[in-house]
TrEMBL record, chain A:
Species annotation: Paenibacillus rhizoplanae
Residue stretches making up the ABC transmembrane type-1 domain: 74-282
Protein name per UniProt: Carbohydrate ABC transporter permease
PROSITE patterns in alphabetical order: ABC_TM1
Superkingdom of origin: Bacteria
Entry membrane topology: Multi-pass membrane protein
Coiled coil: none
Localisation: Cell membrane
Organism lineage: Bacteria, Bacillati, Bacillota, Bacilli, Bacillales
Transmembrane domains' residue ranges: 12-37, 74-97, 109-129, 141-159, 189-210, 262-282
Automatic annotation (TrEMBL), chain B:
SUPFAM superfamilies membership: MetI-like
Chief place where the protein resides: membrane
Keyword Transport attributed: yes
Highest classification ranks of the organism: Bacteria, Bacillati, Bacillota, Bacilli, Bacillales
Protein name, entry field: Sugar ABC transporter permease
InterPro entries registered for this protein in UniProt: MetI-like (IPR000515), MetI-like_sf (IPR035906), UgpAE/MalFG_permease (IPR050809)
Biological source species: Paenibacillus tritici
Length: 297, 307
């Protein structure tokens, strides 16, 4: 395709604007990364800056010195993310499979039951009372896994549509004529043929669990059960929380005070890092169009 | 095939029902039980008497709620913020999508897209810290490195409510516009290139092509996406309005939405009645909105109706 001069100008214009927008999207991250490596006194005296006067590793040294708090929070976050995503993905796909089978008597009924939850909700108060008064999940690990995040209508319909549109009924019928049970058909045929949607939905779930702090806000008051987000939240409102352990004077007697601002920024950086690993996959699956137009029909 | 024909239907449906079981149970507990709990809004909840034993008080919770200025403020804020998010978010997303589809090499568009969806992947807690780095009064980037050198008086961002409508819109667009552009980008990629070729032969420049081809062909997607977000106009992102303004009381007049009110009434004021009433108000109006919007979509473009 030969470009005219006007078109070339427009292409260059697009590239420049997109570059600027990407920089705009990226700058705040750069600012906190730099702040986390900035010397605390510099930070307080000169403010947050992209070009700090004095760099320092104090914040990370501090985190290392009170490592047990951070390791525990990371552990809680990873555990909740892995458990929640695994269980959630399993029950989501197991529910989506019968819904995708047009030869199954109740497939429309199931679809309605799931779909209706996207239209109407009982609200937070009944849900809060149910989980706390009847299931007693307050201050347990289950409080971080069960409420709201385990499965949602959007994901179920997404998987259902993928099953329906990508795995023809004939394959399933052929397997069953060969004597495969429903369970076997599901695990051995349906799932292996549906890896793209499993990866996409798994990614959504994993991100939702990793980034969740609201369940803990409602149901958890024990700091031992805080994941990385809630630890970060607590540090924002009260940096002294770190001192509640033995972490106080590790930086040495002459250290002015704990690098509270830089530590917060370092914590945020540590909270973002795992998400960065998901980013390339996210981009790949999203543009492949697994999502686009999938929640329909 | 030894089973008798009579037992066949059950034999066929039972395994599928078993597969659906755990998921169904979850929806039953997590979504349906609370739906039946909406009656709490009509009770004077007293934990000693239990939920079911508490006294019925009819619509008293609602009359109390709507007598306060809170009800008006949170409804107004929720609606106006959503309208701003929808209008600006759609425009910015479309612009990004059009510019991105102009880039000739795949690599560039991939790189830019990756950069632009990053803000959407971070938690509200991290986002609130990013905002804090810019806005905190003493050492924040805006006060310290922009306003001070320019000689403009510094602003105490977390106690001046009037700035937050602009800030929250900016923050929301920053976070979601890149991600939101993906669906438009995909629609543009699906447009037949030969249409542009013939327009070019007819002498249409780039801008004219965008105005006469791209935008009209995007119209159905735009309409459906806008209408769908209109259905959720009574809901707000709790984290954006609670955590990003640091739960600052001085900002409530411009940051209180229905979701933050429900949380504060329940967890901070221990006013279960008010919280339940506000929650049910949100659910019912939200439900009505979704039904209305769906009816409209059905008229405009039956293919895209939700149900």
């Amino acid at each position: 395709m030969i470009q005219t001069r006007g078109e070339r100008t427009f292409t260059v214009f697009s590239a420049v604007v997109m570059f600027l927008l990407t920089v705009f999207a990226f700058l705040p991250f750069l600012l906190i990364v730099i702040a986390s490596f900035t010397n605390e006194t510099t930070l307080i005296r000169n403010g947050y800056s992209f070009f700090p006067e004095h760099l320092s590793l104090d914040a990370y040294r501090y985190i290392k010195s009170s490592a047990y708090i951070f390791i525990r929070a990371y552990g809680v976050s990873f555990l909740v993310t892995i458990l929640g995503t695994a269980i959630g993905l399993l029950i989501t796909s197991m529910l989506a499979y019968p819904m995708s089978r047009s030869d199954f008597k109740y497939h429309n009924l199931l679809a309605f039951v799931v779909f209706f939850t996207m239209l109407f909700s009982g609200g937070i108060v009944p849900s809060y009372i149910m989980w706390t008064q009847y299931f007693h999940i307050k201050n347990t690990l289950w409080a971080l896994i069960l409420p709201n995040l385990l499965a949602n209508g959007f994901n179920v319909l997404l998987v259902r549509n993928y099953f329906k549109n990508n795995v023809p009924l004939e394959i399933i019928e052929a397997a069953q004529i060969d004597g495969a049970s429903e369970l076997r058909t599901f695990f051995r045929i349906m799932l292996p043929l549906s890896m793209p949607v499993m990866a996409t939905v798994g990614m959504f779930m994993g991100l939702a669990y990793w980034n969740d702090w609201i369940n803990a806000l409602y149901f958890v008051s024990k700091p031992q059960l805080y994941g990385i987000q809630n630890l970060l939240m607590q540090l924002m409102s009260n940096i002294q929380f770190l001192n509640s352990g033995q972490a106080g004077n590790v930086l040495g007697a002459e250290s002015v005070s704990l690098p509270s601002t830089a530590v917060r920024m370092a914590m945020a950086v540590l909270g973002i890092v795992p998400v960065l690993f998901v980013l390339p996959f996210m981009q790949k699956y999203l543009t492949r169009g697994v999502i686009i137009g999938a929640v329909k029909g | 095939m030894t089973a008798k024909p009579k037992s066949k239907p059950l034999k066929k449906t039972l395994p599928l029902l078993i597969l659906a079981g755990p998921g169904l149970l979850y929806f039953l507990i997590n979504s349906y039980f609370p739906m039946f709990g909406v009656f709490i809004a009509f009770k004077d909840v007293n934990y000693a008497k239990g939920i079911f034993g508490s006294d019925w008080i009819g619509f008293k919770n609602f009359t109390f709620l709507f007598q306060t200025s809170d009800a008006w403020i949170m409804t107004r804020n929720t609606l106006l913020y959503n309208l701003a998010f929808i209008a600006l978010g759609t425009i910015v997303s479309i612009i990004i999508a059009i510019l991105m589809s102009e880039l000739l090499t795949k690599l560039y568009s991939k790189l830019f897209m990756t950069g632009l969806i990053l803000p959407n992947l971070i938690s509200m807690v991290v986002l609130s810290l990013l905002v804090f780095a810019f806005l905190n009064a003493d050492s924040g980037f805006v006060n310290h490195s922009i306003l001070r050198p320019l000689g403009i008086p510094e602003i105490n961002w977390y106690s001046e409510a009037k700035y937050w409508p602009y800030l929250l819109v900016l923050i929301q667009i920053w976070k979601t516009a890149g991600y939101g552009s993906i669906i438009y980008f995909a629609s543009i990629a699906g447009i037949d290139k030969s249409i542009y070729e013939s327009a070019k032969i007819d002498g249409a420049g780039k801008l004219k092509q965008i105005r006469m081809i791209t935008l009209p062909l995007l119209k159905p997607t735009i309409i459906v996406l806008v209408l769908m977000s209109m259905g959720r106009i009574f809901n707000s992102d709790f984290g954006l309005f609670y955590q990003v303004p640091m739960n600052s009381g001085a900002l409530y007049s411009t940051t209180q939405t229905i979701d933050t009110y429900v949380y504060r009434a329940l967890m901070q004021l221990n006013d279960i009645g008010m919280s339940a009433a506000a929650g049910l108000y949100q659910s019912l109006v939200g439900f009505a909105l979704v039904l209305t919007v769906n009816a409209i979509v059905k008229k405009v473009n039956p293919e895209n109706a939700l149900f």
